[in-house]
Structures are given as C-alpha cells and as structure tokens.
C-alpha cells in the first residue's frame, strides 16, 4: 500500500519536510524537538504498514488505510502549526498555538501506538491463521477497539455487541482472540456512555459459562470499573454491571472487595429503586456475596435484611427468589440473623413466595431458608405453627433433586419435639423419605436417612414405617461399606430404633445387616457396635426360644 492517496505528496515526503523545518522553528523549540522524535518513529511504523499490507486481506487493508489517512491529516495540520511557529510573533496567540502543538503531539502519539497494535497483531502479514469468517470478524473488531478515534472505537463496540448477541460461540471466539483485556483497558479511557456499552459487552461475555474465568482473572481492575458504573451509571449501565458482577462475585477475593468498596450499599439501593430486571440481578449478586461468611457483617451494617424481605415480598419472581436465597445464606449458622429475619417479616415473606410459585426448582431457596430457620430453638415453634409441615410433603416427592434434599434436611430440623415429629409423620412425609433412600445421589440417601433417624424416635412413626415393604431393606443396603461418601451414623441410628420391634429385627437380620455391621464396627462407625450386639443377642434368644 503506497503512502499517498491524494496526489499531492507521500506521507514520507510530508514527514521529511517537517523534520527539515523543525530545527528552524523559533517558538516552542523543546516541544517541537519532542515531535521530531515522534515523527521519526512514526515514519518507521508507517513504512512497515505500507510494506506489509499490500498482500493482506481487505479488512486489514481497510484498517491500515484508515490509519494512514488519519496520519496524513495530522501531518498536514502539523505543517500548518509549524508555519505559525517559524517567527517570534505568534499570530494566533501563545496559548492557542501551544494548545495546537500539544494536540499534534498527542495525535502523533496515538498514531504510533495504533501502528504498533496493527503491526503486533500479525493481521497485516496474516501471521495469525483464521479458521472462519466469524473468527476474522472478531479479530478485526478486537484491533479496532485499540486504534483510531473514540468514534471509531464506539462503532467497534457496537459491532462487537451485535456479533456476540448472535450466539454463544461468537462469545467464545472473541474471548479466544483476547477481547477481555482490551475491553478492560478501554474502560480506563472512555466516556461514561461508551463505558456502559463496554460493560454491556462484558455482561454478555459473563453469561457464557466457559468465559467467566477470563473475566474473574482480570480481578480488581475490572471490578472497580463495574462498581463505579453501579454507583453513578444510568439504569442501563447498572443493569449490565449487575449481570457481570454476578459472575465476578463467585470469587471469594472479589466478593470481599465488593463488600469493602461499598458495593453492598449500591446493590441494596438498586433492590429498592431499580428496574425489575436490575433488582433481580442486584439480588443475585447479593445472594453470591452472602455465601461468604466474613461479609455478613456488611449486610448487617447496611440494614440489608429489611430490604431483602421487602424485595422477597413484592418483586418479580427472579428478584424474590434471589432475595430469599440471599436470606437463606445469611441465616445459615447465625441465630441472631435468623431472629432478625423473623422480626423483619421473613416468615410471612417465605410463605407468600412458597404459595405463589408452581415451579419446583424455584422452591429450593425457600426450603433451604426454612431448614436454616428451624435450626434456631427460638424460631422453631414459630415455623411449625405457621403450617409449613404440610407444605413439605409434596416437595419431598418433586422432580428436582436439590429441592428434595433441602426438604428432607428441613424435616430433620423441624423434628425437634415429640409433637412436631408426630405431626410430620401424620402429614405423610415418611413414605416419601423411604423412596428417597433409593435415590441415585448419595446426598439424597443421607438426607433421607438423617430425617428418618429423627422421626423414628416417635412410636407412631415407626408403625407407619413398618407398613412399607421396602423400608427396612433400603436402610440395610445403605450399611454396605462399599457405599462411600455416606454418613452411616444416621442409617445405624434409624435401624437401632426399628429393631425394638421383633418383626423389624428379623427383617434387618434377614437383609444382611450383621455382615455389614461387622465391617462398620471395625471402621468405628458410631452406634454400629451397639446395633450389632443388639442383633446378636436377639439371634441367641431366638435359638433358646425354639421348641
């Protein structure tokens, strides 16, 4: 590609002419001396571009041509400013001329940096192989984001967003082309309106699971930009910042940084006054943050429980679900927080959401919250009196594994008294728990056996259990030492309660419990020795009882 296109003179000639004139200039000599060095560097870069781009693709040719045209315009302006600096008198005034000289310096700097980016990309020499049109388009846009005027970069951002919206594959291609670090650097220098478009691109990238780690790797630099948009951006910008923060807040280090930099306060403000969409996203970020115990104090300081209960009572379904999920995490292992949630109306909020959704998956957050609240002795009576036990029965048999497990754990928590255990048994939970013993997931088996070990303390519940044809066999099978990653204490405890019945004792022995128990005793499983001795005694007495 030649270094001329308007018929007057080449770029090389323009640069040579300026280099010859600069030593003769009388005004701003030190500034022009600096410009002279920049011109020499730019001349080298532009020559390299011209030599390389003759055999390159049309897209890379266009990038090179745009740069050369922009450089030509700057050189013409530089010649005009230089003419005004040839004498001691400055016809346009000192300040105006100085400003023009500084502008030339900045523009030459930008051209040199743009040229370096273009050369380093390998695009002009086709050093980097391109396997598809989409890959070529993505790489072209990544380069355009780094060179040219702000208007050009703005156009590139809009084109990139269009490309990424087409499908997730385009997101992965662009990430592979190195777009994320380029976007983060762009956030340092662009206007607020452009910054929000960049954040929109980042939020789109964050929606693709395989790309989240690249965003997390950018760390505090990206995080700080997103938090600034969260504080002072438009509704659109805050929306997109929240989406991106949902991915970034999964990291403990980032979660801690959000808590320390006032992020929780900004997120809570959005939960109170944001758009329905932004409320859901903001509550989602808070839900992630609440899973890190060391940040809980920040929630207390910001009066978060009141805001979350309010949103959980009146927001959209996604917003309510995230708010209740956040409350569930905050309540975990913290009795003070449990009581605060109840005082702020959390029970009413929980019940309202439970009764208003038909999707079983959405119930997981409220079942977990119920389970956590029931662990607090002061709160238990309130929970049971509000009619949650009957609500658990259908949930134990739903098609969502996580919900079934949470429901079984809630049953364990609610079975804290003779009265509550009896009520749970009469509600119909025991049959569903027996079915869960045969589930595929170890977590489901363990949650069910733990719940049964609590409920079978009640005599009437043991009678209900005995009516099942498979209950004893399902429990005994869980004693098998080959089944790992299962806490067998609960299974042993449940069987210990059942073998007080002669009929059940025979069923337990017939199912092969004695053989399993020998190995569990060797493994020092709690309660195994007592159960083994109990079964052994019954076998001896059975021999003496024969005629």
Question: What layout of secondary structure does this protein have?
Answer:
Layout: H1 11-21, H2 29-52, H3 58-84, H4 94-120, H5 133-144, H6 150-166, H7 168-176, H8 179-186, H9 192-206, H10 212-217, H11 219-232, H12 235-248, H13 252-260, H14 263-273, H15 276-290, H16 296-301, H17 304-314, H18 317-331, H19 335-343, H20 346-356, H21 364-374, H22 377-385, H23 388-395, H24 401-414, H25 418-427, H26 429-436, H27 442-455, H28 459-466, H29 471-477, H30 489-498, H31 502-510, H32 513-522, H33 528-544
Helix pairs in contact: 1-2, 1-3, 2-4, 3-4, 5-6, 6-7, 6-9, 8-9, 9-12, 11-12, 11-13, 12-15, 14-15, 14-17, 15-18, 17-18, 17-20, 18-21, 21-24, 24-27, 26-27, 27-30, 30-33, 32-33
Strand content: under 5%
CATH architecture of the domain at 420-547: Alpha Horseshoe
Helix/strand class: mainly alpha
Strand count, sense and barrel status of the largest sheet are: none
Report the span from N to C terminus.
111 Å
Poorly predicted runs are: 540-547
CATH top level class name of the domain at 420-547: Mainly Alpha
Average pLDDT reading = 88
Beta strand count = 0
Multimerization status: single chain
Helix count, per DSSP?
33
How would the global form be characterised?
Answer: elongated
- The helix fraction, in percent, is over 70%
Q: Any idea of the CATH topology of the domain at 420-547?
A: Leucine-rich Repeat Variant
């Amino acid at each position: 590609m030649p270094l001329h296109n308007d018929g007057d003179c080449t770029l090389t000639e323009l640069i040579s002419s300026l280099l010859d004139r600069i030593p003769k200039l009388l005004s701003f000599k030190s500034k022009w001396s600096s410009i002279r060095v920049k011109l020499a560097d730019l001349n080298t870069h532009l020559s390299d571009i011209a030599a390389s781009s003759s055999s390159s693709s049309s897209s890379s040719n266009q990038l090179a041509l745009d740069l050369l045209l922009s450089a030509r315009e700057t050189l013409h302006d530089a010649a005009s400013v230089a003419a005004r600096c040839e004498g001691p008198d400055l016809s346009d005034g000192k300040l105006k001329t100085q400003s023009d000289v500084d502008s030339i310096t900045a523009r030459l700097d930008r051209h040199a940096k743009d040229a370096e980016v273009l050369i380093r990309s390998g695009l002009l020499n086709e050093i980097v192989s391109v396997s598809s049109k989409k890959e070529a388009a993505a790489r072209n846009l990544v380069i355009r984001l780094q060179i040219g005027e702000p208007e050009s970069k703005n156009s590139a951002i809009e084109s990139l967003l269009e490309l990424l919206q087409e499908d997730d594959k385009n997101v992965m291609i662009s990430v592979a082309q190195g777009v994320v670090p380029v976007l983060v650097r762009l956030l340092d220098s662009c206007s607020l309106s452009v910054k929000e478009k960049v954040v929109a691109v980042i939020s789109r990238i964050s929606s693709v699971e395989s790309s989240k780690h690249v965003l997390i790797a950018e760390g505090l630099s990206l995080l700080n930009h997103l938090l600034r948009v969260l504080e002072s951006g438009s509704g659109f910008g805050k929306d997109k910042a929240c989406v991106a923060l949902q991915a970034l807040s999964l990291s403990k280090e980032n979660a801690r940084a959000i808590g320390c930099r006032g992020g929780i306060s900004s997120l809570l403000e959005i939960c109170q006054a944001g758009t329905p969409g932004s409320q859901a996203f903001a509550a989602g970020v808070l839900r992630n943050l609440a899973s890190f115990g060391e940040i809980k104090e920040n929630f207390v300081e910001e009066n978060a429980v009141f805001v979350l209960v309010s949103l959980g009572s009146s927001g959209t379904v996604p917003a309510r679900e995230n708010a209740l999920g956040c409350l569930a995490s905050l309540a975990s292992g913290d009795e003070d927080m449990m009581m605060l949630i109840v005082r702020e109306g959390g029970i009413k909020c929980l019940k309202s959401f439970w009764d208003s959704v038909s999707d079983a998956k959405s119930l997981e957050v409220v079942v977990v919250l119920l389970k956590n609240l029931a662990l607090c002795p002061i709160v238990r009576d309130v929970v049971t009196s509000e009619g949650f036990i009957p609500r658990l029965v259908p949930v134990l048999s739903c098609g969502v594994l996580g919900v079934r497990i949470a429901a079984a754990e809630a049953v364990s928590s609610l079975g804290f008294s003779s009265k509550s255990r009896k009520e749970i048994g009469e509600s119909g939970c025991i049959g569903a728990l027996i079915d869960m013993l045969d589930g595929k997931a170890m977590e489901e088996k363990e949650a069910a056996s733990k719940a049964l070990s609590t409920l079978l303390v009640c005599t009437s519940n043991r009678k209900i259990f005995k009516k099942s044809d498979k209950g004893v066999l399902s429990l005994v099978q869980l004693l098998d030492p080959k089944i790992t990653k299962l806490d067998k204490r609960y299974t042993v405890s449940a069987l210990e309660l059942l073998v007080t019945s002669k009929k059940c004792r025979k069923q337990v022995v017939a199912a092969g419990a004695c053989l399993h128990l020998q190995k569990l005793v060797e493994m020092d499983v709690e309660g195994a020795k007592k159960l083994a001795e109990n079964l052994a005694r019954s076998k001896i007495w059975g021999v003496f009882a024969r005629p």
